[in-house]
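name: query_chain
kind: protein
chains: 1
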Amino acid sequence: MIRSGTFLLLLACSLFDSCRSQKPFGADELILKQRISLPGVKGRIDHMDADVEKQLVFVSALGNNSLEMVDIKNGKHISSIKKLSEPQGVIFIPQTNEIMVANGGNGSCQFYNAESLQTAGRIELGSDADDIRYDSVDKKIYVGYGSGGLAVIDPVKHQKTADIKLPGHPEGFQLDKALEKIFVNVPDANQIDVIDQKSAEVIANWKTEYNANFPMAIDESSHIIFIGYRHPAKLVAIDENTGKTVAVADLIGDADDLYYDSQSKKIYASGGSGAINIYLFEKPAFKQIANIVTRPGARTSMLIPTMNIFILAERATGNEPAQLRIYNTK
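structure:
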């Protein structure tokens, strides 16, 4: 019984990295500005996006089947779109003043007018519509979905224009406009797929060194992608031109969001194990400059570099309501 219990403990540690606790440091990297409650929101919170001009944040409350709208300028929750189907991805489209929500439950992508919140369009992808990227130059929306697909959507006509097949469900992905490539984490296949934007075809498959590659960030100026792994918890920098690993560092467990700030050269990662990690990337190595404690399970975040703001979404736990923590970045 003792051996069995020890084995289970070690297994849990290897899966979730909860046994490699790190002392807090670098608290001055994020200064808490305000907390904004999300009334009545229960369960898991997924991706976020923002109307930066109006300072509105859109929050996919997956476990609550709702999209929550928060005014971060005035520090208040303002409205909700209810009866969604496990919303995961969300994107604000400035050119059309619309919001698109990707639903994991039924695979639909729903468009809403950002003012009236009335339905403006709908696209059916079949299943598990997830992460979203918007190419504002070419006016294309990319949505990862199903057991292996990246849909290309026209945001004006509300139509799917192309479908890129992948070997498994896509998680985090990024666009490099200069290289005209898309880099996609495909954890089920233990690889990163490279897509040519012009042909909408997969042109390379890079096998991963670790498992469960979920979030991804990008430094377009240096053509480096940053990958967050969960098993074990690692942060990895990869050269986009060669697929070769440039640097590796330990990372917070259960990482779900990862951001690179091109101005400060800092990398921000939030993880469900209960911390925000911040790094500087000084090729060929990472330098961790902060480990800021958060509520366990708070793995969803968003960086708004133009506003010097980092937002962390905390799900409801016990007597603590769901909320957004708004930080000023250093």
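note: The two ends are 50 Å apart (CA to CA).
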